[in-house]
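Sample pair:
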Amino acid sequence: MNIYSFYLQKKNGHVKFYFRGGICLKNSLEKNREIRVLISQIKAFCDTIHEILVSTNTIESGRYSGFKDMTVVYNDLAERTRLLLNVSNMFYTFNIDEIPAWGDSVWPVQKKILEQVYISGKMLLASLEESMDFVDDEFDNIENFLQSRLRTVIFQKPEKEVEVQNAIESLLLGRGLAKGVDYDRESGKFEFSGKEYIPDFIMPKMSLCIEVKLLKEGRKSRIIEEISADMTAYKKEYDRQLYVIYDLGFIQNEIEFKRDIEMSEGVKVIIIKH
């Protein structure tokens, strides 16, 4: 038995991944803010261990004295990661009872344990960062999907926004998303500054809301004002916002229209020309 397997234990079980309509639901994505905080904490943890490992200011016999404390901290971070990502048996943890105390071990053993803590911490960090990348990638996928497909399913000039909303819902269903599970429509009501808001669509697993605007003649300035108000309110509830503008021919410069709106983090605009 090598020194690493002696100090590490892996819990039995299987990691399951579920797919529906091309969307991987492997993580609990509603907790993105908590994931970001945990990422920052693990980065600081790994940086601290790295500084200890490369330091030459302390003699080696005392340099790694906090190695056992670091395993305790790592186990706590691993458990928090497991809970946030909603996976039961994915990460190694240290068997603290099997790890000798500082006075009962020599510095090469202490160093090897600390190195394994560092590697394991990096693995936690990669898993958390991958989960965030997944959400952002799926946000891009939804944006690109609606940009490329929405116009193809609208056959007549829409008179009301609900017609565009119906077309979007048909696309979501065709993509394999389940209403009430992967998305919902006109739900998620909340209040902001005394006003009630109800997004057209929400995708809770991505912390995403989708708002539809039908741009008719004389409505351009009004829609920009509506989006500005919506952006401020929706930030209270959602990390990501997607505004679908169905333009009946009144936006001359799309880049200029989108520029100021998309300067806000997590906000995207797609313009569909009829």
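The first strand starts at residue 8 and ends at 9.
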